């Protein structure tokens, strides 16, 4: 992409309404525009990052054997009356009536609808296990939408639903999700720690939230510092191997890590003092086993091998796709702007032409652009007639991991400059060497 032809409406001034750094930087880098409280347009660069995150989520879900589908945003109230949640959900639910006077709602989540799909099409245990998921817009009329996309009213979420015959099978599905989530966040360059969370009205221990540590996080968290040393890495995983998935769950959840809702002071104080941490975190996902709550209420049953009919065992598992954009920036920035991890960057590399209109500089930039593109990478070429300082400031603000700077002085010796956004270190090298370094 050539910056002169792109749509990147960067702001020079700090927007007064933004209280936290990710919100400020997303506005300044021209990623989003607020349309109403908690409702945003995703401008081209923000949209690109959102889609890269979504793509990683899809790849890891599919790797785990989960099946994508797409449910609508608008749902009939009657389904929610069956589960009893139409009245229970309260003010967070946006209720709508169509021209025929039928009650509808903009889905805040999809347990009811997926259960309806299941009961319409599945009868036998032979069709289990089954995990269906989608990535779709949700609406929750949050009392206090704030921090940009972190607490929006309209937001993008991956929500997956598991269907199993037995509780053991459902717990394996839970473990599979935990493993796939660890991989998902790590691929984005993010540490998200599974923490024991509150089962809410459903109760039970079978829920974990994934938290990214950040001062601006809305949750208070308590943990053993050893949890931050754990990484999943690139180990092989067989998602059908129950013992292996259970092993990963135990490895990642046996040390103390809880949100304030489930915090237990006595257990916490049993950790050696130097390892006790009290901090804040951003909830970027949650996994939940809830058994037959919806299947019983809505009559989603399966025939068992011995000819009985039982309500199907279920769980639901969410990732805050749009919130992750903000969380990634909270975890990756400096005073100049964003620093994208390579896994989610909107463009792989910036090209800065220090002397636009100079034949040698222009053709060297074009050649770089072609070579990077031929490698399957997406460069963003700043081909505007602008001062070098302004070009550098824009590149630092939007945070591409690499910048290649092309100027007449270097070119005289066949050199360009490669700069890492994260370390700030620059190195002179040939254009070919620079291209080879970018992944
Ligand atoms: P929170 O505690 O932040 O209100 P939640 O527990 O109500 O979130 P879940 O129902 O667990 O949310 O939804 C799954 C994921 O969707 C959350 O882990 C979070 O990452 C994301 N999410 C929830 N509410 C919002 C929101 N208002 N804006 C953006 N993302 C959200
Ligand atoms: Mg909430
Ligand atoms: Mg929560
Ligand atoms: Mg939650």
N- to C-terminal distance: 17 Å
- Estimate percent helicity: 25-40%
**Helix segment count?**
14
* Protein structure class: alpha+beta
Strand content: 25-35%
* Overall pLDDT: 96
Biggest sheet descriptor = 9 strands, mixed
Low-pLDDT runs: none
Bound molecules: adenosine-5'-triphosphate, magnesium ion
Radius of gyration: 24 Å
Name the quaternary structure. Answer: single chain
Overall strand count: 23
Shape: globular
Tell me about this structure.
It is built from 14 helices and 23 strands. The protein is α+β, with helices and mostly antiparallel strands and 439 residues long. The strands form six sheets. Strands 3, 7, 8, 9, 10, 11, 12, 13 and 16 form a nine-stranded mixed β-sheet that branches. It has a five-stranded mixed β-sheet with strand order 20-19-21-22-23, with helices on both faces. A three-stranded antiparallel β-sheet has the order 4-6-5. α2 crosses α6, α2 crosses α10 and α6 crosses α7. It is globular. Bound molecules: adenosine-5'-triphosphate and magnesium ion (3 copies). The site of one magnesium ion has 3 residues, from β13.
């Amino acid at each position: 992409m050539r910056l002169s032809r792109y749509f990147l409406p960067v702001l020079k001034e700090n927007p007064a309404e933004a209280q936290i750094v990710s919100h400020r930087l997303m506005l300044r880098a021209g990623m989003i525009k607020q349309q109403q409280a908690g409702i945003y347009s995703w401008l081209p660069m923000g949209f690109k990052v959102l889609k890269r995150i979504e793509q990683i989520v899809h790849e890891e879900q599919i790797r785990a054997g989960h099946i994508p589908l797409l449910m609508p945003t608008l749902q009939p109230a009657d389904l929610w009356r069956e589960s009893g949640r139409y009245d229970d959900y309260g003010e967070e639910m946006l209720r709508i009536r169509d021209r025929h006077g039928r009650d509808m709602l903009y889905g805040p989540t999809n347990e009811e609808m997926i259960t309806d799909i299941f009961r319409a099409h599945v009868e036998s245990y032979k069709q289990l296990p089954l995990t269906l998921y989608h990535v779709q817009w949700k609406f929750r009329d949050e009392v206090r939408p704030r921090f940009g996309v972190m607490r929006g009213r309209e937001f993008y979420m991956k929500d997956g639903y598991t269907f199993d015959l037995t509780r053991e099978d459902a717990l394996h599905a839970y473990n599979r999700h935990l493993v796939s989530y660890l991989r998902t966040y790590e691929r984005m360059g993010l540490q998200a720690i599974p923490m024991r969370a509150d089962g809410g009205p459903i109760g039970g221990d079978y829920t974990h939230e994934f938290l990214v540590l950040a001062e601006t996080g809305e949750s208070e968290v308590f943990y053993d510092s050893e949890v931050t040393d754990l990484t999943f890495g690139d180990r092989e995983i067989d998602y059908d191997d129950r013992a292996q998935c259970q092993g990963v769950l135990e490895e990642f959840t046996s040390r103390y890590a809880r949100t304030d809702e489930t915090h237990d002071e006595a257990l916490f104080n049993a950790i050696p003092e130097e390892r006790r941490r009290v901090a804040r975190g951003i909830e970027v996902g949650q996994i939940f086993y809830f058994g037959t709550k919806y299947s019983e209420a809505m009559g989603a049953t399966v025939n068992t091998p011995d000819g009985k009919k039982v309500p199907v065992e279920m769980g639901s598992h969410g990732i805050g796709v749009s919130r992750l954009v903000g969380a990634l920036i909270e975890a990756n920035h400096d005073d100049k702007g964003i620093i994208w991890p390579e896994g989610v960057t909107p463009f792989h590399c910036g090209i800065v032409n220090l002397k636009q209109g100079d034949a040698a500089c222009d053709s060297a930039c074009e050649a770089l652009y072609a070579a990077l593109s031929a490698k399957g990478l997406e460069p963003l070429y700043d081909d505007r007639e602008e001062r070098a300082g302004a070009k550098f400031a824009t590149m630092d603000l939007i945070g591409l991991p690499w910048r290649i700077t092309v100027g007449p002085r270097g070119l005289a010796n066949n050199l360009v400059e490669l700069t890492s956004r994260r370390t700030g270190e620059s190195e002179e090298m040939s254009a070919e060497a620079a291209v080879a370094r970018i992944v």
